Amino acid sequence: PPELGILNNCSPIQLEGLCSFLQLSVCPEPFLVRFCGWLLALTPNLSYTSAAILAEQLFLRRVLSLTQPPSRHLMAALASFCSKYSQPFCHVLVAAVLREPGKGAEQTKLVCELVEECLEPHCVQVVLSQVLEMPLSEQLLPVVQAVLGRQEVLPPELLDLLVLTLCRQAPAFAASLDYAKLVTAVLTTYQSQVS
């Protein structure tokens, strides 16, 4: 709808107010899918700040409150939004989930699914960088595994940081099967770069 052009003309505070007025954070999921479809057609594209605000308003509460796998509507909306605005999405939503991995397994599974199927290669690297900024935990290992499953070419400095992190934290994961799988995946995928 042409009315959506207003999203490009709002200040951040106005956009937050508009989202609150429209109750986007609690709108029914089928409408969420339609709204994200409209966002894809919007020209010009949303600014980074506007997309970040919308990612937070549309998805953050829903994702952090998941206690079971997301509905197909929510997954469709997430995939649609990620296809055009994956950078702000990663910095807002994925970062929030990674900061609180103890919240629940569903959030971690969702991030893994997004990494495997939705995010652009440069955003997969952003997710890995975000993971490596915090102490590794059993809950975060599947996210790193999902990143490696994409078999993307990692920049040397990011690969070095991954290897260094895995080496430093090895004693804490002495009995972890997931950690062993992760090390094997690194050695297999990046064997020519890991000495």
Automatic annotation (TrEMBL):
Signal sequence range: none
Cellular component, GO annotation: Fanconi anaemia nuclear complex
InterPro entries named in the record: FANCE, Fanconi_anaemia_gr_E_prot_C
Domain Fanconi Anaemia group E protein C-terminal span(s) in chain numbering: 1-194
GO terms of biological process kind: interstrand cross-link repair
Record-linked Gene3D superfamilies: 1.25.40.480
Protein name: FANCE protein
Source species taxonomy: Eukaryota, Metazoa, Chordata, Craniata, Vertebrata
